[in-house]
Amino acid sequence: MASAGRPPLKILLVGSAGVGKSSLMNRFVHNRFCSRYRATIGADFFTKVTELEGQRVTVQLWDTAGAERCQSLGMALYQGSHCCVLVFDVTVAASFQAVAARQAEPPNPKLFPFVLLGNKTDLPGRQVSAQEAEEWCAQTQAQYFETSAKDGTGVALAFQSALQAALRQQ
Ligand code: GDP
């Protein structure tokens, strides 16, 4: 394996409060789920060392809490990051509209990879279809994954895709 001397891959999680950003990070980093809701204040990050394409990489996952409330912080966080994971809750249409509206925010979306996650697929009462999300992704060159931080469905696959995109960007 290559040395761990390379700089960390920085991945941003963006999405409305409550969509499951902290839970997805917790699932990916610790393989755990906690049903207690704790609103993140400001920005927080988790670190995980993992192996990707035969290399040892350090990943920093940044939770950009309540991006609507922190526009300037959001912009600052994009600097130096390698991939953006946009998260919405498939049972809340407004959470999809919120991420879809953020498309033009980073300096150059064509050069900055996105991955879109429709989370909470374990819940009934779906408001956003996979087709709707995939159509948005086709326009923005993002990849779409359906996840449940609760039962773990799709989480490893989604983060693997984000890490690969980030690695290409680094
Ligand atoms: P954040 O504000 O985006 O970081 O959202 P959290 O990770 O704090 O999650 C908000 C609430 O949704 C918490 O009560 C979580 O337990 C719950 N939650 C998160 N992901 C899922 C999921 O995939 N399925 C279900 N059923 N609940 C989830």
UniProtKB/TrEMBL annotation:
What SUPFAM superfamilies does the annotation carry? Answer: P-loop containing nucleoside triphosphate hydrolases
Q: Matching PROSITE patterns, A to Z?
A: RAB (PS51419), RAS (PS51421), RHO (PS51420)
**Keywords of this entry:** GTP-binding, Nucleotide-binding
One protein family per Pfam: Ras
BP-aspect Gene Ontology terms? endosome to lysosome transport; phagosome-lysosome fusion
Alphabetical GO CC annotations of the entry are: late endosome; lysosome; phagocytic vesicle
Stretches that traverse the bilayer: none
On whether Translocase is a keyword of this UniProt record, the answer is: no
Highest taxon of source: Eukaryota
GO MF terms here are: GTP binding; GTPase activity
The family classification in the record reads: Belongs to the small GTPase superfamily. Rab family.
The molecule here is called Ras-related protein Rab-7a-like
